[in-house]
Structures are given as C-alpha cells and as structure tokens.
Design a protein that fits this description.
Shape of chain A: globular
Shape of chain B: globular
CATH class of the largest domain in chain A: Alpha Beta
Organism (chain B): Methylobacterium soli
Strand content of chain A: 25-35%
Distance between the termini of chain A: 65 Å
Keywords (chain B): FAD, Flavoprotein, Oxidoreductase
Oligomer: heterodimer
Strand content of chain B: 15-25%
Largest sheet of chain B: 5 strands, antiparallel
Radius of gyration of chain A: 32 Å
InterPro entries (chain B): CO_DH_flav_C (IPR005107), CO_DH_flav_C_dom_sf (IPR036683), Diverse_Substr_Oxidored (IPR051312), FAD-bd_PCMH (IPR016166), FAD-bd_PCMH-like_sf (IPR036318), FAD-bd_PCMH_sub1 (IPR016167), FAD-bd_PCMH_sub2 (IPR016169), Mopterin_DH_FAD-bd (IPR002346)
CATH architecture of the largest domain in chain A: 2-Layer Sandwich
Protein name (chain B): Carbon monoxide dehydrogenase
Number of helices of chain B: 11
Largest sheet of chain A: 7 strands, mixed
Radius of gyration of chain B: 19 Å
Strand order of the largest sheet of chain A: 3-5-1-12-9-10-11
Structural class of chain B: alpha+beta
Order of helices and strands of chain B: EHEHEEEHHHHHHEEHEEEEEEEHH
Largest interface: A-B, 66 and 60 residues
Distance between the termini of chain B: 32 Å
GO molecular function, one term (chain B): FAD binding
C-alpha cells in the first residue's frame, strides 16, 4: 500500500498551523464571539471529599445585582440523567452533586451572571452546609469491609472484579525454578493543557435541541453519553468544536460532564451560557489519570526467561466511574505481556471508587501504569539472577520472524524487529560507554544508575476493548462492539481547489499539515492548494463514535483514511481526464499540478480544470462515476474484532516499539536527579513528518519526566486536595528537561493505509519506569515508587539515621506518615491572671468575642457550645468563616477539651485540643495545650505550604489577645514560635479557624 | 479566578500613597510588581478594598548608596537591581541570590520591597536582608521609622509594618573587606519556593548563617569560628531549633539535612575569604 511517489510525505515541511498559533491568530473557544445575551457561569465546588449536603442557601447570592440564576444539582435533576458508565447502572454519575458530594471540587451549584466576576462573587455568597462523612482515599483501603461506601446502591466501592486466565499459568508457576513479584503504587497525575475546558451552550425550546460548543477532543462515543444525559436523541445535540484547542493530552475528553452541566443550565435560564474553566478548577476537578496498585508476579528460568505473569491490578477511578472508564485499565489488556513472548498470563482487575476526582483520558492512558510494574519486574529479575538487564530484556523479546504476533491476551502485534531496535539503541546510544560512566562515578563514591525499558506502544484503539470489563455472557447479551472508524471528506470546488475535512479534533499536533501532505501527494498538487479543516460539527460533518483525537490514532487511521479518500477521488479524476485526453486512466500521472500521460507529458490537463469538471460540465463526467465533487470515506480495520468468548481482545490496531536507556546521577546531599543521558529508540512504522514525530517524542518525554520526578495530584488521608496550583503541581519546564537522543527504526504497519503507527504516547509509558529503574540501580533498591522527589531520594540515600537533636531539645516528632495532614502541636502560654479568671474568660461568649481577633460576634448556644463569625487569616490572606466550637470534659478551672469546625469560602477546618490551666505560683496561669487539626478546601489546595505557619499566627493571635485581656502576659516571652504554634492549634480547635 | 472588586489608586507621589493608606487602613494594600499579590487577588485569598499602586512614584525608582548601604526604594524591580553593574562587588550575596528569585519574567516586574513586605518565609530577598543585618525603612503619613530586618519579620507573611505604613525602602549593608558571602538553595525546580535557602556571612570575628524556607521567617544565627564536629554540632542544633515541618515537597528531616549540609557548605565557602582565598564564584549548589 502507500503512495506512488511522495513530494511531501516523509519530509518535515513547515506546519501550516503555526503562523496562526504563534502570532495570536489561533481561534480558541474563549476567543470566539458569542451570541448577544450570552451569560457567564461560575461553579461552586465542594470543599469536602465526602459529605452530605444539608442545605444550600442561595438567597443572598441571587439577590446580588447582575446575578441571573443560581442553579443546584436538584434543579438540574429533572432535565438531566446520569452519565452512563460502562458498568453498573446503580452508580449515579452526575455532572453535579445532588444531596451528596464525593470529591473535593465536585460541582455543587452554578451561578449564572452578566460576567464571570459577578458569577464568582455569587459563589462566595452561597452558603452550602455539609455534614461531613469519612472519606476513603486509598484504593486498597476502599476495599476493606468497613470502608466508607461512596455509592450505597453499588453496595461497596468495588464496581468491577474480573479474572482472566490465558495459557496455563498455574503449571508455569509450578514448573519454573524462580519467581518474584513487585508491588507498585502508581500515583495520580495529569496532562495539564495550557488551555482549560470551555463550553458555550444554547438550548432551543422550539426544537428541544441543544447547541454545544466545547473544546472536546473525542472519542465521540461520548456524544451519545452527553445526549442521553441531556435526555435528547443524538440528532438534537449539535456538538461543535472550535477551530483550535490549546492542548489536551487526553484531558479534554473530560469536558463532557461540563457540556451536560452548562447545556442544562442554559436551558433553565433560557439564554446562552458560557463557562471557561480556570486553573484552580482544572487541577482539582477536571480529570486525572488513574492511580493504581499493582502486584505483578512472574516465574522465570535461570536465564531470566519469563514463563508466566500474574497481574493483580486495583484501579482507582475516583468518585464516579465516568465513560469511557474503566478504559484506562483495559486499553492495555491485549499487550499485558509488553514486548515479550510470554504465553501464560493470569489477571485480576478490580475497579475501585474513592473520594477523589473522577479519572479519564490522560496521554499514555494505562501504559505507564502497566509498564511501570512490568519493567521494574524485568530489572528485579536481572538483579535477582545477577544478570545484565539488557540481556534479560533481549532474551524475552518476541522474535522478529513471529509478526504478525498474537499475544497471550489477544492483541495482534502488526510488525516489528525488537532485537534490531534494541541492538541499534545500545550501539547508537552507547550503552557500553554509559556503563563505563557508571563505573567511574561509582568509583568516586557517586550515586549513578542505568535504567532500561522496553515497551510496546499501542495505537488506534478498538472501540470494543472496553467491553472486556464485561463477561463473555454479558457481552453476548449487549451485542458486539469493535472497530475504529475513521473518516475523511475531500471536496473539490468550482475552481478546482481542494478542501479536506476530518473528524480528528487536533489540539495543536499539526493534523492539517500532515493531511495536506498526504492529499497533495496523491493529487500531485502543491500543499498550498489543499486546505484542511479539523473543527467538527456533529450536525454537518461525517463522524463516528471513534472520531476524535486519542489513542494516537491520527497518523495510522486518520491520515490513512484521508489517503484512501484522496486516492478514490484521484481515480475518478483520472477517468474524467482520460476521457478528455483519449488515454487510459492507468496511463495518467498526477504531478506538478497536472494530470498527464506517463509517456507523453505534453498530453495532459491542468489539475484544476479536471477537478472543476463535475461543477461546470457534468456532462463530460463518465456516467458511472456520478460526480467527482465530494468523497467521504469511512475506514475501519478488519483486525479490530470484538473480544471473543475466551476474553481474547485485540485492544489496538498498531503496536509500535520503544526501547529507552538512560544514565542518571543522584546528588547525595540534595537527592536531585541529573539525567546524564537519555536515549529513546522508536519504531512507529512509517514516519510521515519527522519533525512532528520528534515533537511528539520530546513532548511525551517532558510529560513523563514530570510524572516521574515532579508531578503528583496529591490528596491527604481525609481527601483534601493538596496540589491546586502550579506552585504545588510542578510541571517540568525547559530548564528541567534535558536533551534527548532520539533513534528510529521503521517497521511499517501492514494494517494501516500508510504503514504509519501512533507515536504520541510512547514515552509517557516508557520514561517513568526507565528513570525509576536507573534510580533503583543507583541506590541498590528493590522497590521504588513515583514521584522520585529529591526529599524521598535523599532519605533513601542517607538511610534512617539522623543526628539527634541536642540535649534539652524536645524529642523530635515522628515523621508524618504520607497523606497524614494532621497539624499537631502543643504549647505553653503565661497569662497574668489566676486560673479561675482565665477559665471564666474561656466560657464567656461576649468576652471571647472581644478577644478573638477578627470576631464579628460569638453566640453561646449552650454553656459549652459556641458559634462565631470570624475573619481569620495571616497577612493579606483573610477570609470570613463560621466557627462552631464545643467544649467537653470540663474540669473547672483546670482542663477542658474542645472540638470545632470552621467553614468559609476559602475552605474549612476542623480539630480538637485539650487545654490545661495551672497556677504559675506568681498569681498567674500557665496555659498548656495540645491540639490537632486539619484544613481542607481551597486553602489546602493552594496554600498547603503555608498552613502550618498560618496556624501559628492565628492561634498565637488568639492567646496573645487573651493574655492582653487578662492583664498582659506574665513571665518571659519564650519560644515564640512554639508558643504560637500551640496557640494556633488551640485557636483552630477553639474557633474552628483555618488559615 | 477573578478577583473581587477593588478600588485602585495610582499614586504619583509618596504623599499620595501614604494618604491612601491612612484613609483606607487595613483595607488597603500596596501593589508594586504584583507577582505575589495578583495571584492572591485572583484566587480571592485576599480581598483588599483598595490597591495603592506605587510604581509611578519617581522618588522610589532609584537604588542608591548611602552610608555604607545600598538603599533600594519600593519602586525598584528585581531585574533592574540585577542589572546594576556593581552589584556583585557591592552585594555579592544578593547578586548570588537574586537569580533564584522566581523567573526572569517575574523578576522583570517583581520588586525587592514587595518581596520583603510579602514576607514569604522561603523568599530569598528577605533572607539576604536578614543575613546582612539590613534594615527596613517604614513610612506613614506622619512618621518614619527604621527597623532591623530581624525585628521586621515576625511570622509567616506577618511583619512589624502597621496598616498605615508602607516600606519606603530597604537597605543592604555593602560588602565589607575581609568578609565572605555565600548563598545556596534547593528547590524542586529552579525558581520554585525554596525548600531550604542558605545565606552565609563570615568575617574574622564570626560566622553568620541565615536560613530560609524552614522556620516561619528567615532566621539567622551567629557562631564563633568553628570547624569539624563542633561546626556539625552547632549546625545540628540550629537545624533542630528551626522547627522544620513536613509538606508536600519535602520532609522535616530533609530540611534539617539540608541545613546541616548546605549550611556547612556555604559557611565554609564564605570562610575562604577570611583565609585569604577567593570565593567570588559563590554559587556552590546548582540545582
């Protein structure tokens, strides 16, 4: 297959997109004009990971001038339904909370106003009351019988539990001399596009139809989910995409719930509504890749030849299972054996819900979660046997003569020569030199390691792979799903210029350039004569459920179908020209803007004249052609069959190959990683545009470096979201990303029209584990999880022993266990008043009101129950909060325990403390206290770094005020920091203060 | 991420700015470069009623040397100071530290006094001011006062500045002959908030080490000339006394380790001057 001669394909021609993108002429969703009367939405989101909504008071907000409406989940419940997931209808996955919130950032109300500023003012004025439930964050903990259950209708947090068996795993384990297992906790991260989500929606009541403009990326199977959630048939949901989209990396698939939310809101308010997501919203509540806990066990012989794999994967999809999840888990099902010829495989896949943001597409989609344990395993096998990891990897590879190769789990690997790729990578990447560098570094006492990774990069997803989550019987009942339809339309206009339209929805990748290359080559015209449009309108354009920009399907499937459409059109034009030239069509050549005889170039016609024939002189068009104005071609590869009765699934059409090797040095003092060399070898089949392939590799590598070293969507044990800004969610920048050595071999795919395979996601799959393998090698570790933070690596390098604090120093606090965000403290204060006086002050609402900094009044509900309105903060960071404090275990005038909560627009906090009053022997009181507290919501998400210090200031402020009120502090003002810290905690406990 | 509504005064003179502060009291905030304040406004972490812009005040634009100190008024952007030809000679510590302040884009707008007023505990500019025993010059409508840097910072983002005062200038004592200076910092990425930042000033009489990013404010300690295990012990005590905490990016232990190791490194580097060696390329820890 392929192209007869190429002028453009295979060359790094200048991208046609770039002039606009680089000079401010891009047309992104927020740049496009909206209809007059369009309103702006802001979304009030849950500060709690798990809570019942007790009430939402919207009256004050609604009364603000400029606010048009405040819409809650209950308001929308009548005109929408849940978003249908692939499994379990008992799980009501709505786009907005109804009566209960299950993750921090979950939409609770939508304020619609004249502008976004006012809408956000409105959000600040809504008083939502919650009854907090215990949250569960860890996927394994969520499986415990006593774990809090997110969806009672499901019965537990386990929404899917499937076991698979291929070959004879039991016998293989029994007969192999060695076995080994690795357990990996893969963390959460995301793709962080520069442009966030956006939706502009209109409802037409006369037609009961929605018009939704969204920077959605596909797959357009989600169109059906959105239409169903809006309770309209598909032809009454016109979904359009803007001409440009500012990055996605899979993430823009997750705009779908907001399409429902904003469209339904537009219906309620009767006017168009626009919503542009901001970065705080995006990081906390757009989409995350799944975190996964995997135990992978293998048996192998003395040379490291693996005979069997046993996968136990616990997939955490967050609070709701949203379509297409649990696709992250099943996308890789066909290639669970990676690049290796392993015939026995056992799999247990569990899908678990926890109180975190729902997951969705993120570049790499399931690959990093699979290759991390698989390639850690290969290194551990080599380590255990004392073998070179390179030899172990090479020994296990699928033989080059075995392609197309059917894996144990059902994938049909199209092509490859993995041994050659490995050998060329070792040669051109100078692996031997890297080993010398490692030896030299180690001889000097430096920490240096080498990492290797082999990975198969799947692309062009089978739309049926997700049904592997169902049993064969369930699948039979539902009917088979499979294929990967791609489509292209090529149109000739009356002057013979060419327009190409595809449903590929790019986000900056350069689809228009490649399509112009492909079509121009087929038609023998300059690229500039081909104009490509990639924005999609589901009411007008050709599309299918597989349309969109995901699973690295562009080069293989979309460029391929454009080639088919162009070829079909060319063949028609050849017949038209042949009739006019009195030649045979097969004797004609399309080149240099002409259609001419192969043997006599003078016998020919300008391309434009032939191309315009169907417009101007249809009579000259041979009858059986019909017309040659517009060709739409749909293509789906026959190899993508539905999962069979034995659960064999060809989850993807194409399988590229990657082999990475790297050398890494770790600074013993700072724990920082320096990448000495990174070599990445790719076989992505035929390369259509080398520059863009390089761009994909470099971009994927940068994101993977982020996932490996810098980025984590972090949650506390209580479900508080902790990385809500780019100061805490750390993207690698140009400063952090080292240069790469990129190598290629080409094994064209026999299954795609152009021989191309996907290349967009490979490094996201291979690089995290390659770096981890190097770090493990440097530090001599058996286990290492991401992210590879300097703090973690420094402590691994230094060991457990730390110089003890000097004599007289308070015993060090035990290190907090990961995820425990409890602020704990204790302190001491001297007050120049006897305990009885201080005691009375603590129980006197009016006096407290005057003592508490920022108090707007304290209400005494009982002798031991207080509520207060307080303005709390440090420096300029201030917010108004409602505090609720209860005292108990009172032993006047000696001791009391306090518990309390605070809630406000900046977040919420809760804690408890015990305060003890003792006479200091000089007429005053020594106040000692211990406390613990936690803070959630926006403040925790954006200001985690500062919470501890803020707590000190606030609690310190309270005790200082109390001491002043009681007649001034007594004694020395010693240990101010510790004192304030304790006070802060106390204040948090007492007043429910949060920073 | 849109700020709540606020008023805005673009002061053309110091008097105009101070009048606005007096009139609006705690509801007013000075805005200079806005590199900390604007994100806080947009996130609605702060909702001042009035912003007082001081960047048009001509009298606050020029750094100048005065009685052995470089006086940096409120309108001086970090990038401007960094371009000052003699900065590395006059203030080698600040010259080493300034490139660690944010990024080239933020330094192009951010001011030194703004960083001091913001009082982030991990900020480099306040750290240098404390290490060098500089001063903060505060001015209100009716009075002016000068306060040492160590007394100025009282907690995380909390200072001695009263609501009706603004920082008119800060003053960094110039390099003294026979004194060595050294700076080092570790952050996750270049330009991030420091996990630990160390500034050392060593002369014949003492070794002074200031640490940012660990306690709730930049904190300095003076030591007699120590070496070997005596220096280890002194740094260990300092490390523990700073009360390090765990956060998303680093453990308390990691911070203490860096105080001990990087602290020692910068002290030894700065001490080279007192031993007649040079330490002019004093940026030991690239990270």
């Amino acid at each position: 297959m392929g192209i007869e001669h190429t002028t453009f394909v295979g060359r790094s021609v200048e991208r046609v997109e770039d002039a606009a993108l680089l000079s401010g002429f891009g047309r992104y969703i927020d740049d496009l004009g909206t209809r007059p009367g369009t309103l702006h939405a802001a979304i009030l989101r849950s500060p709690h990971a798990h809570a019942d909504i007790v009430g939402i008071d919207i009256e004050v907000a609604r009364a603000l001038p400029g606010i048009v409406a405040v819409v809650t989940g209950r308001d929308l419940a009548n005109i929408t339904t849940g978003l249908v997931p692939a499994v379990r209808a008992a799980l009501d996955a709505r786009a907005i909370a109804v009566d209960r919130v299950r993750y921090v950032g979950e939409p609770v109300a939508i304020v619609v106003a004249r502008d976004r500023y006012l809408a956000e003012d409105g959000c600040d004025l809504i008083e939502a009351q919650y009854r907090v439930r215990t949250a569960v964050v860890d996927p394994v903990a969520a499986l415990a019988p006593d774990a809090p259950v997110l969806h009672e209708g499901v019965g537990s947090n386990l929404v899917s539990d499937r076991r698979f068996r291929y070959g004879d795993p039991e016998t293989a384990f029994a007969e192999s001399p060695h076995s080994l297992s690795v357990t990996v906790r893969y963390p959460r991260n995301t793709g962080s596009p520069m442009e966030t989500y956006g939706v502009v929606a209109t409802y037409d009541p006369t037609d009961d139809s929605y018009d939704v403009l969204a920077n959605f990326q596909g797959p357009f199977s989600i169109h059906a989910v959105v239409a169903r959630a809006l309770k309209v048939p598909g032809n009454r949901l016109r979904l359009r995409t803007p001409p440009d989209s500012g990055g996605s990396f899979g993430v823009k698939q997750g705009v779908a719930p907001y399409a429902v939310l904003i469209a339904a809101t537009a219906r309620l308010v009767g006017q168009p509504v626009k919503w542009i997501e901001d970065r705080l919203e995006h990081l906390s509540a757009s989409v995350s890749a799944t975190n996964r806990v995997t135990t992978l066990k293998a048996a192998f012989d003395g040379e490291g030849r693996v005979t069997v794999l046993n996968w136990d994967q616990v997939e955490d999809c967050g609070a709701y299972l949203r379509a297409p999840e649990p696709a992250t888990l099943y996308r890789m099902h066909g290639n669970l054996t990676g690049a290796y010829a392993i015939r026995n495989v056992a799999v247990r896949n569990r899908v678990v819900l926890t109180n975190k943001t729902p997951t969705g597409l993120v570049r790499g989609f399931g690959g990093p979660q699979v290759y991390y344990p698989l390639e850690r395993l290969m290194q551990c096998i080599a380590r255990k046997l004392g073998l070179d990891p390179f030899a172990v990897i090479r020994r296990n590879l699928i033989p080059a003569d075995a392609f197309p190769y059917r894996t144990a789990t059902g994938a049909l690997y199209d092509s490859g020569d993995y041994q050659r790729a490995l050998d060329e990578a070792a040669r051109d990447g100078e692996l031997d030199d890297l080993k010398r560098r490692r030896d030299a570094a180690r001889a000097e006492g430096r920490l240096y390691g080498i990492g290797l990774t082999a990975a198969v990069e799947p692309s062009v997803s089978n739309m049926g792979y997700i049904t592997t989550v169902l049993t064969a019987a369930e699948r039979a009942k539902a009917g088979p799903k499979n294929g990967a339809q791609s489509t292209a339309t090529i149109t000739l206009d009356p002057v013979g210029s060419v327009t190409v339209q595809v449903a590929s929805v790019p986000q900056g990748q350069g689809h228009r350039t490649v399509l112009a290359q492909v079509v121009a080559d087929v038609l023998g015209i300059p690229m500039g004569q081909v104009r490509v449009t990639t924005d999609l309108d589901t009411a007008k354009d050709a599309w299918s459920i597989a349309s969109g920009n995901y699973s690295s399907r562009f080069a293989a499937a979309v460029a391929g179908v454009a080639h088919l459409a162009a070829t079909q059109l060319r063949d028609k034009l050849a017949r038209i020209a042949a009739a006019q030239l009195n030649l045979r069509p097969e004797d004609l050549v399309f080149a240099d803007g002409r259609i001419a005889s192969r043997t006599n170039p003078d016998a020919g016609l300008p391309f434009g004249r032939v191309a315009a024939t169907s417009h101007w002189s249809p009579g000259l068009v041979p009858e059986d052609i019909g017309s040659a104005i517009r060709e739409t071609v749909f293509w789906t590869p026959p190899e993508l069959t539905a999962p069979d009765a034995d659960d064999l699934v060809n989850s993807s059409l194409c399988h590229g190959f990657i082999f990475d090797l790297c050398g890494v040095e770790i600074d013993r003092v700072t724990g920082k990683i320096r990448i000495d060399r990174y070599v990445t070898m790719h076989d992505c089949g035929r390369v259509l545009h080398p520059g863009m392939v390089e761009g994909q590799v470099r971009g994927g590598f940068a994101q993977a470096l982020g996932a490996a070293v810098y980025e984590e969507l972090a949650y506390g044990d209580d479900g508080a979201f902790l990385s809500g800004t780019f100061a805490d969610y750390l993207l690698p920048t140009a400063t952090e990303v080292p240069d790469l050595r990129i190598l290629h071999v080409e094994s064209p795919s026999p299954f795609t029209p152009l021989g191309a395979k996907g290349v967009g996601e490979g490094n996201c799959m291979s690089t995290p584990v390659c770096l981890a393998n190097a770090v493990a090698d440097a530090l001599g570790l058996d286990a290492i999880d991401l992210p590879l933070t300097p703090s973690k690596l420094a402590s691994l390098a230094a060991g457990a022993d730390e110089p003890a604090p000097p004599a007289g120093h308070a015993a060090p606090k035990p290190p907090a266990k990961p995820g425990d965000r409890t602020l704990r403290g204790e302190g001491l204060a001297q007050v120049a008043a006897p305990p009885e006086t201080v005691w009375a002050m603590l129980l006197d609402a009016d006096l407290l009101a005057s003592v508490i900094p920022g108090s707007h009044g304290v209400r005494k509900l009982s002798d031991t129950h207080f509520q207060a309105d307080v303005s709390l903060g440090v420096g300029p960071v201030k917010g108004r909060y409602k505090a609720d404090v209860t005292l108990f275990d009172l032993e006047a005038p000696r001791t009391a325990t306090l518990t309390g909560t605070v809630t406000g627009s900046l977040g919420s906090g809760g804690g408890s403390g015990r305060i003890t009053l003792e006479p200091d022997g000089a007429g005053g009181t020594r106040v000692s206290y211990v406390y613990e507290a936690a803070v959630g919501g926006k403040v925790a998400a954006v200001g985690g770094r500062l919470l501890d210090g803020a707590a000190r200031v606030i609690i310190g402020g309270f005790f200082a005020a109390l001491a002043r009120r009681a007649g001034g502090p007594s004694g020395r003002n010693t240990g101010l920091a510790g004192f304030l810290r304790g006070l802060l905690r106390r204040l948090l406990a007492r007043l429910g203060a949060s920073a | 991420m849109k700020p709540a509504s606020f008023g805005y005064v673009r002061a053309e003179s110091l008097e105009e700015a101070l009048d606005a502060l007096r009139q609006h009291g705690p509801e007013a905030r000075i805005i200079a470069g806005g590199q900390s304040l604007m994100p806080m406004l947009n996130m609605r972490l702060t909702k001042p009623a009035m912003l007082v812009d001081v960047m048009r005040i001509a009298a606050l634009k020029e750094p100048h040397v005065e009685k052995g100190a470089l006086v940096v008024p409120a309108g001086v952007r970090q990038a401007i100071l960094l371009e000052r030809p003699k900065l590395a000679d006059d203030l080698p510590l600040l010259a080493s530290a300034l490139p660690w302040v944010g990024h080239i884009q933020t330094r192009a707008r951010g001011t030194l006094c703004g960083s001091v007023a913001h009082a982030d505990p991990s900020a480099e500019i306040p750290l240098c001011l404390v290490a060098l025993e500089g001063e903060v010059r505060l001015r209100a409508r009716r009075k002016a006062r000068r306060i040492t840097a160590e007394a100025f910072f009282t907690g995380m983002m909390v200072t001695e500045k009263a609501d009706d005062e603004m920082i008119e200038a800060i003053a960094y004592p110039l390099r003294r002959r026979g004194t060595g200076y050294s700076f080092a910092e570790v952050g996750r990425r270049h330009g991030d908030f420091a996990i630990v930042a160390c500034a050392a000033v060593v002369d014949s009489a003492r070794m002074r080490l200031a640490i940012g990013g660990v306690a709730d404010r930049p904190t300095a300690r003076d030591f007699p000339h120590l070496d070997g295990s005596a220096l280890d012990d002194a740094l260990n005590a300092f490390a523990w006394d700073l009360g390090a905490g765990d956060d998303l990016h680093a453990t308390a232990r990691y911070r203490r380790d860096l105080v001990r190791s990087l602290g020692r490194r910068v002290l030894e580097d700065a001490a080279k001057v007192t031993k007649g060696e040079t330490n002019r390329e004093a940026a030991p820890c690239r990270s």
